[in-house]
């Protein structure tokens, strides 16, 4: 029986994925590395450090660990400049009604995100109170597809893994959910997330009962 819902943040709850791209694009341009929106798909659900390593690989570049850390911090500052201006307008369509309905029906809700800025984003968008548990990049050490973030989320909700559904927009996130023995709903096109157990374009006019019914 499904009792818990675990959500990724970027691209699922709020529209912050574009800001990650803008920030990484600025870093890539500074290093004269071509970085496209298609390249950015490889960074979804991936840690900041690994994301920068992928960009370096795209450019055939190497760099010391200390230098990589400096660029990762610079990227984060650029990203923070964007998200510090966020408002409720950044919440994706249908998310608030879906969360409200699920919470009113007694489902336990957790955030499971690689973002180290999750708390700030939820505060700025007035979403924090919807979540019973927040697990983010500051509280886990392993990046998706490692299932640590979702296993920790289920544990903190007081639920078994198999009692939870994960909502994700990245391949690594879907893989992490399956590694944790959880059902995974892909937010996006089936061709981009072929491993997901079902797919949604978004949360408009969707109920948790409809999702559970389709997953059975």
Automatic annotation (TrEMBL):
Swiss-Prot/TrEMBL catalytic activity: beta-D-glucose 1-phosphate = beta-D-glucose 6-phosphate
Keywords noted in UniProt: Carbohydrate metabolism, Isomerase, Magnesium, Metal-binding, Phosphoprotein
Site positions (Important for catalytic activity and assists the phosphoryl transfer reaction to Asp8 by balancing charge and orienting the reacting groups): 113, 144
GO biological process: carbohydrate metabolic process
Catalytic residue positions: 8 (nucleophile), 10 (proton donor/acceptor)
EC number assigned by the record: 5.4.2.6
Domain of life: Bacteria
Cited SUPFAM superfamilies: HAD-like (SSF56784)
Gene Ontology MF terms in the entry: beta-phosphoglucomutase activity; magnesium ion binding
Enzyme class, UniProt record, top EC level: isomerase
Keyword Magnesium set for record: yes
Binding site for Mg(2+): 8, 10, 168-169
Pfam entry (one): HAD_2
Residues bound to substrate: 8-10, 24, 43-48, 51, 75, 113-117, 144
Cofactor(s) named in the record: Mg(2+)
Cofactor note: Binds 2 magnesium ions per subunit.
PANTHER family assigned to the protein according to its UniProt record, in alphabetical order: 6-PHOSPHOGLUCONATE PHOSPHATASE, HEXITOL PHOSPHATASE B
Family membership noted in the UniProt record: Belongs to the HAD-like hydrolase superfamily. CbbY/CbbZ/Gph/YieH family.
Protein name: Beta-phosphoglucomutase
Organism listed in the record: Paenibacillus macerans
Gene designation per UniProt: pgmB
């Amino acid at each position: 029986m499904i009792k818990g819902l675990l959500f990724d943040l970027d691209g699922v709850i709020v529209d912050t994925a574009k800001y990650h791209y803008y920030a990484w694009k600025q870093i890539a341009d500074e290093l004269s590395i071509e970085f496209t929106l298609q390249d950015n798909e490889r960074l979804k659900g991936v840690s900041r450090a690994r994301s920068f390593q992928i960009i370096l690989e795209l450019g055939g570049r190497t760099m010391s660990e200390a230098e990589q850390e400096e660029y990762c911090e610079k990227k984060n500052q650029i990203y923070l400049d964007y998200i510090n201006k966020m408002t409720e307008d950044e919440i994706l369509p249908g998310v608030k009604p879906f969360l409200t309905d699920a919470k009113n029906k007694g489902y336990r809700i957790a955030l499971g995100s690689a973002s180290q800025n999750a708390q700030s984003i939820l505060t700025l968008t007035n979403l924090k109170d919807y979540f019973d548990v927040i697990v983010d990049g500051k509280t886990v050490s392993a990046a998706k597809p490692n299932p640590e973030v979702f296993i920790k989320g289920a544990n903190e909700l007081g639920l078994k893994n198999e009692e939870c559904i994960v909502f994700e927009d990245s391949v690594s996130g879907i893989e992490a959910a399956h590694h944790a023995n959880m059902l995974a709903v892909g937010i996006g096109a089936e061709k981009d997330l072929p491993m997901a157990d079902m797919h949604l374009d978004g949360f408009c006019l969707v109920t948790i009962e409809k999702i559970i019914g389709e997953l059975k």
